[in-house]
Amino acid sequence: MSLSCGCHFIPPHVIEEMAKNGHDGAQASLEISRAHRLRRDERTVNLVRQLHPDGQPLAAAAGATGTAQRKVYDCGHGTALHVPTRLVRSEGGAVVVDPIVNQVYDFAGNTRDYLKTLGRNSIDNNGMDLVLNVHYGTNFMNAFWDGDEMVFGDGDNQVFTSFGKSADVVAHELFHGVTQFTANLVYKGQPGALNEHFSDVFGSVVQQIIKKQNAGNADWLIGDEIMGPTLRGEALRSMKYPGTAYDNNLMGKDPQPAHMDQYYAGPNDNYGVHINSGIMNRVFYLVAMDIGTTAAAGIWFETLGKLWSTAKFNDAVAVLVRVARNQVAQGKVPLGSPQSVRAALKSVGLPR
Ligand SMILES: [Zn+2]
Q1: Strand, helix or coil at 175?
Q2: How many domains does the chain have?
Q3: Strand 130-136 vs strand 70-74: parallel, antiparallel, or unpaired?
Q4: Is residue 3 assigned to a domain?
Q5: What does the alpha-carbon distance between residue 277 and residue 274 come to, in Å, rounded to a whole number?
Q6: Catalytic residue selected from 173, 196, 234, 302
Q7: Do residues 43 and 84 share a domain?
Q8: Is residue 4 part of a domain?
Q9: I want to staple 274 with a disulfide (CB 3.0 to 4.6 A). Which of 11, 43, 55, 185 is the partner?
Q10: Are 142 and 33 in contact (CB under 8 A)?
């Protein structure tokens, strides 16, 4: 079960680099993340046992359709989930004093509303409630989707500020949930890099909608809003120029390749899930610049629904082109979209 989506926003190689360079909080955050992963794996095993009492998958859970309610919980700096924490704002509730609660509530709402425009009813297409946990741990430097809830740390306020401050972080984590309920891409190697890629794509798309931007004036940076005063101006990833998001003494240098010739084949980062995603991110950026973010996102979203758990880059290439062609035939995207997708893929060395 170790391949289940740990889905932490800050990749382990970044936090490890920070710990190595003497950042105290980085080590503590790593340990909390590791402990959490263990608990999650245990819980996943239990869940699978429940669902498969005789080794056979049950028919699609016959749960009642939910109403996609937002529920923001304050962890009060604790690290226990699935225990009664304090519900601080629920759907339709008034704005509260704590700004992070309101921001996470708003960004989750923006993401849910965007999913609706794609014809999807919340994360699971069945109206699943959006459970959002804030103030997780003390100075915890990460955010993650744990399989059914979203969790946001406060950062150390030096290197990273509160993770709930960024729309692309919130939408990124929420889309790990969408991926889990659609392609369910294994969180390792190329399927894992695709999993990360789709979260970056829709994190960026939702942010462009909120900021009323388009492909031409968006920054195409992921996680720039959560950089604290020490590293203000840096970001976690650049979809436009993968490999250029950061370069400093604390985090090291952004390892993302922008072309298959620089593909990372080593074992770090679950065999490069946050590293090789840069190659596909660049493809999306190029297509969005050509046919617009909305049209590109429509092609990518339908593709996500047609992929499978072990899909690799070449599989995604085939499905993207097929979907682009179908969407042209349906009048959903501009003529020339399949050619735009092929040209972008070719420029990063795909298929290979
Ligand atoms: Zn992620």
Answers
A1: helix
A2: 2
A3: parallel
A4: no
A5: 6
A6: 173
A7: yes
A8: no
A9: 11
A10: yes
Report the separation in Å between the CA atom of 24 and the middle of ligand 1, taken as the mean of its atom positions: 24
Tell me the longest C-alpha to C-alpha distance in the chain. 56
DSSP letters, 283-339, are HHHHHHHHH-HHHHHHHHHHHHHH--TT--HHHHHHHHHHHHHHHHHTTSS-TTHHH
Contacts of residue 343, defined as CB under 8 A and 6 or more positions apart, other chains included, come to 286, 290
Q: Give the Å distance between the CA of 7 and the centre of ligand 1.
A: 5
Active site annotation includes 274:
yes
Q: What distances in angstroms separate CA 306 from CA 35, 58, 248, 336, one per listed residue?
A: 33, 22, 39, 22
Residues 6+ positions from 184 with CB-CB distance below 8 Å: 308, 309
**Is 173 an annotated catalytic residue?**
yes
CA of 237 to the centre of ligand 1 (A): 11
Determine the residue type at 187. Y
What pLDDT was estimated at residue 29?
Answer: 81
CA distances to 120, 155, 280 from 73, rounded to whole Å, are 24, 17, 34
* Centroid of ligand 1 to alpha carbon of 334 (angstroms): 30
Helix (H) or strand (E) holding 73: strand 70-74
Residues 29 and 146 in one domain: yes
Residues 6+ apart with CB under 8 A from 106: none
For residue 1, what pLDDT is reported?
35
DSSP class of 4: S
Report the chain (352 residues): mean pLDDT per 10 consecutive residues.
65 88 81 67 44 35 73 90 80 97 98 97 96 94 91 94 95 96 96 98 98 98 96 97 97 97 96 98 98 98 98 98 98 98 98 94
